[in-house]
Amino acid sequence: MKGSITIGADVTADVALSCDVCIVGSGAGGSVLAAGLAEGGLDVVMLEAGGWFTRRDFDLQEAHAYPMLYQDRATRATEDLAISVLQGRSVGGSTTVNWTTCYRTPDRILDHWRTVHGIEGLDSATLAPHFDEVEARLSIGTWPIERANANNRKLYDGCKALGWQTGPMRRNVNGCANSGYCGTGCPVNGKQAMAITYIPDAVVAGMRLFADCAARRIEHEDGRVTAVHAEVLDRATGRPRGPRVVVRPKVLALSGGAINSPALLLRSGMDGGGRVGRRTFLHPVTVVVGRYDDEVAGYYGAPQSAGSHQFIDRGPDRLGFFMEAAPMQPMLASLPGSQMGLDQARFMQQLPHFAGLISLQVDGLLPGDDGGRVRIRRDGRIGLRYPFTPALAEGFRAAHEALVRVHLAAGAREVWTLHNPPVRISSEAELSALDARRYGAHDLSVFTAHQMGGCAMGPDPETSVVGTDHRMHGVDNLFIVDGSVLPTALGVNPSETIYGLAHRARRFVGEAV
């Protein structure tokens, strides 16, 4: 069978297809799944709402990349606008724009899933061969700390000075030019994203890919999916162009991610007994910047090459967090909501001397922490609600103190929080100033680049959406293979967990055809 890539502009009339497996979404889950199924001889059709882009489209310009490669032109946010949501939207999904950090699922998380959520058969030994395979295909390996940019070295050196745990990152790169612009698409194909790895593998094996093609509704009857209805989009506007695509598969796999997969199910009247869209986790991120006498130039060099899990476990009643660095390209570093006018201008004038360190809260592990909820609003748009709990506020406060201390230990002249106005600290004697500020919704800038949950995995249909085989409870031929199945946040960047789970899911989906 001959594979193909069809972009929306080339579709001039309605299309009707049948296939063994239809996969909705081309990110970390869908692409790994598709390659295995197609290489196994199955007829695979993939639908992707985003566009098909190559390295020639990536010009390192944020003004071009954010509208082109991110959901909602990089304006996606929670309903109350308290959390900005960075999520990819192109062939390859978020792997096109992520910062390449790869971790295997921690044992402590797998143990938690087993003891709290009843998930058996997901242990490190079972997952190891799947991780081995994807690590080889994606060239995942440790980035030498000697190649870390000054931005990441501030985190590494500061933690070392404090005696805290720290170390180099593992990245999915091959021939990386160390430009630092991973978030705008890699212009040298150094990042081993899905669009240059598993997607070509699948197309060569016969998969038919439709880009600019948004799945809108799942047709189902008597516990089985019968069709997927999609609209062809105009890439420039994101609006429907007119032609429609209808796919009638033997098996459907949703891989649209932790926001879009639940939304598609909800639009289709498939709420899983009210559980679809619930328990959505975000690894809520806060940023603390340090101003240094020496030039940091955090916009150049691998975005993330050092990290710290010193505070990943803070006891049974407090959120743990981990620390990483964030790239400092001008638009990303302009700190929306934290500074205005003259303060913003002064910050940007000094940008080469600022380093940006981040903390990511590990949500979903504490009793009663159900995270957020994806829903469909009255106007038909996707809504995401996420509460700022007292535990989250306490975690933000603790993370701020840790990041300030790291900056100071690394030699920062002054450290700024992203409150409005910022807290400015020049020595550890001033740390108490953090206690005078609040850490709730809109009190400081918060974003997420890791969306998880919404279609939680588990053995009990009363408390979960999919089984451990990724099959949706009560629907024989519908599987969900993406970050939405994670029952909690991970405490590490999620891409490799999704790769590994998708590699494991190939068998279950293939056997259902």
Report on this structure.
There is one protein chain. This protein is an alpha/beta fold. It folds into 2 domains: about 5-75 and about 85-140 and about 180-275 and about 455-510, FAD/NAD(P)-binding domain (3-Layer(bba) Sandwich), CATH 3.50.50; about 145-170 and about 285-360 and about 390-440, Cholesterol Oxidase, domain 2. Helices cover about 25% and strands about 20% of the residues. The chain has helices spanning about 30-40, 60-70, 105-115, 125-135, 150-160, 200-205, 255-265, 340-350, 390-410, 495-510, and strands at about 5, 15-25, 45, 85, 140, 165-170, 170, 210, 215-220, 225-235, 240-255, 280, 285-290, 305, 320-325, 355-360, 370-375, 380-385, 415, 425, 445-450, 450-455, 480. The strands form 6 sheets. Strands 1, 2, 3, 8, 9, 10, 11 and 23 form an 8-stranded mixed beta sheet that branches. It has a 5-stranded antiparallel beta sheet with strand order 15-16-13-19-20. Strands 18-17-12-22 form a 4-stranded antiparallel beta sheet. β19 (about 415) and β20 form a beta hairpin. It is globular, with a radius of gyration of 22 Å.
